[in-house]
């Protein structure tokens, strides 16, 4: 007999104003530049974060640029080091159900250059290009591959790994842990000599407004939106909600919580901060300085445990069925 889950069954934002709504100017410009370059592109490689295989993919825009499936398209689910092999099978099943037209799916890990998924990208792309009608580019021997996706999923990292593996050359695209590192569509970067292959890096582009609150929180949790846009306290609360809802209690040991799982984020962070001696001085309205537990530092640590895989392999979409 399974006991009912005593924790929150739904996640509610404290207010509608806290909805994820991050669409800075470089994204509008990036969309325009992507469209301008499309004529010279032979294949689109869409990179997404394997921890959210369904949530947040900017499908409407991405479908437009593949000409609704006319241009070869590969979906690469990156950061697979943060999910398990068992999850990979589940993800393929989920994707086949919600988007049966998706045929070319690879799982990659940029942190490991020997990862078979990364090495499969170029052979698959060149095969798809050879099988496609390249219209105005039929006479050209070279291949241009455009890398697209939402922010911070590893688009620039993939270009660097492939350039390194195939050409033994050092990185050419800027990479960083924050969302929004690549801010414009760059010049094409050479990846391979025979056949000649170039890749075009693009800035991460989100949906202009994410109306599904949980989807927005998942994007924030994996880092597709800068933390300060949503706030670390709210991201940590969403993480706690998700873990409890899915009975993933590894966090209890990791945070050293003596009284077991809890759905109260303030209590969880306070206990962890106390235990780790995370304190800071706070000036009160009357001018007095008080030493208090640093809940923000504790929230950041909790989030970073998730982001570095220390709470176990997690597919945040495991029970979702978004329409893509
Ligand atoms: N764990 C893990 N981290 C990765 C992997 N690939 C990239 N990263 C990290 O993810 C972060 C983002 O990588 P980028 O390559 O800058 O991502 P991007 O998609 O180009 O990001 P924007 O330019 O901001 O849109 C960096 O901290 C990378 O080190 C991976 O396979 N596994
Ligand atoms: Mg980038």
Automatic annotation (TrEMBL):
It comes from the Eukaryota. It is found in: Mitochondrion inner membrane. SUPFAM superfamilies: P-loop containing nucleoside triphosphate hydrolases. Belongs to the TRAFAC class YlqF/YawG GTPase family. MTG1 subfamily. Its main location: mitochondrion. Residues 31-208 form the CP-type G domain. GTP binds at residues 78-81, 152-157, 204. GO terms for biological process: mitochondrial translation. GO terms for cellular component: mitochondrial inner membrane. This is Mitochondrial GTPase 1. PANTHER family: MITOCHONDRIAL RIBOSOME-ASSOCIATED GTPASE 1. It is a peripheral membrane protein. GO terms for molecular function: GTP binding; GTPase activity. Plays a role in the regulation of the mitochondrial ribosome assembly and of translational activity. Displays mitochondrial GTPase activity.
């Amino acid at each position: 007999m399974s006991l009912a889950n005593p924790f929150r069954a739904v996640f509610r934002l404290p207010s509608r104003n806290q909805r994820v709504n991050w669409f800075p100017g470089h994204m509008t410009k990036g969309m325009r530049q992507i469209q301008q370059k499309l004529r010279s592109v032979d294949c689109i490689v869409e990179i997404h974060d394997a921890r959210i295989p369904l949530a947040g993919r900017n499908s409407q825009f991405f479908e437009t640029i593949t000409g609704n499936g006319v241009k070869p398209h590969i979906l690469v689910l990156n950061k697979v080091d943060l999910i398990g092999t068992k999850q990979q099978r589940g993800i393929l099943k989920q994707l086949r159900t919600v988007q049966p037209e998706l045929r070319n799916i690879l799982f990659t890990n940029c942190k490991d250059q020997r990862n078979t998924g990364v090495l499969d990208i170029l052979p698959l792309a060149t095969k798809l290009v050879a099988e496609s009608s390249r219209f105005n580019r039929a006479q050209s021997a070279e291949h241009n591959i455009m890398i697209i996706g939402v922010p911070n999923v590893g688009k620039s990292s993939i270009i660097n790994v492939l350039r390194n593996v195939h050409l033994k050359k050092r990185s050419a695209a800027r990479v960083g842990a924050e969302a929004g590192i690549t801010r414009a569509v760059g010049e094409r970067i050479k990846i391979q000599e025979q056949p000649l292959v170039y890749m075009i890096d693009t800035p991460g582009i989100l949906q202009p407004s994410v109306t599904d609150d949980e989807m927005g929180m998942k994007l924030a949790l994996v880092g597709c939106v800068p933390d300060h846009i949503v706030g670390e306290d709210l991201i940590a609360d969403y993480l706690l909600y998700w873990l409890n809802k899915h009975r993933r209690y590894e966090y209890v040991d990791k945070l050293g919580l003596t009284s077991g799982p809890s759905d109260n984020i303030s209590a969880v962070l306070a206990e962890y901060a106390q235990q780790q001696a995370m304190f800071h001085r706070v000036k009160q309205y009357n001018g007095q300085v008080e030493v208090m537990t640093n809940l923000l530092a504790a929230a950041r640590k909790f989030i970073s445990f998730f982001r570095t895989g220390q709470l176990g392999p997690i597919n945040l979409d495991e029970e979702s069925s978004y329409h893509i």
